Amino acid sequence: MSVEIRRGTARFTEREVGRATRHAFSFGAVYDPAHVAFGPMICHDEHLLGDGRGFDTHRHAGLEIVTWVVSGALTHTDSAGAAHTLVAGEVGHLHAGSGVEHSEVAAAPQTRFVQVWLRSEDTGQPSYGVHAVSRGELVEALEVNGSTLWVSHLAAGGSVALPVVDRLHVYVASGALLRNSLAEPLAAGDALLATEEPGPLVATAAVDSVLLVWALAAEDQTT
């Protein structure tokens, strides 16, 4: 069993006018050999955008791109004809397939969102989908190529037993967790990475909290 706590403060931050991005894994010119990927997850970013700021049209291929808006709103537009403004409580899923161009622009005075990239060998037609997520202790939001995303809304003092899987990634999107079976308190922006079925872990909220919980596919399902 292996459990690692990755503090939000340990991420490297990229800043531009109207945008701040915190990267969990190696990205662009910044290479961190200890943090290149976690199973099929090769990117786990948190973005903060000013109104009208974001990412102009750019291309992706061979990725599943999953976006969760923490606050504000984010407009996605792509070359496959999809256009949607994501708000809190929705998951956006871009299947880049053989290649697609898209843009992402904040549609609110301040927008905070989390985005994950998963490797994919599915080179079919690009597509984009939006999934509304109900509030609950552990709600399945999306399944893609053997990886599953759950979203957990916990009231202060509430607890949830996390899935027992070979590769687990838990991210505190907002709020904070108490010290318990996770071994250390976690704050917003922190993540827990666990491998080799660490047994039942329980998360207990110190304040109202939202967790993004990934059960990630085995390597042979994605590479």
From TrEMBL:
Belongs to the pirin family. Pfam families: Pirin (PF02678). This is Pirin N-terminal domain-containing protein. Residues 18-118 form the Pirin N-terminal domain. SUPFAM superfamilies: RmlC-like cupins. InterPro entries: Pirin, Pirin_N_dom, RmlC-like_jellyroll, RmlC_Cupin_sf. Signal peptide: none annotated. Coiled coil: none annotated.
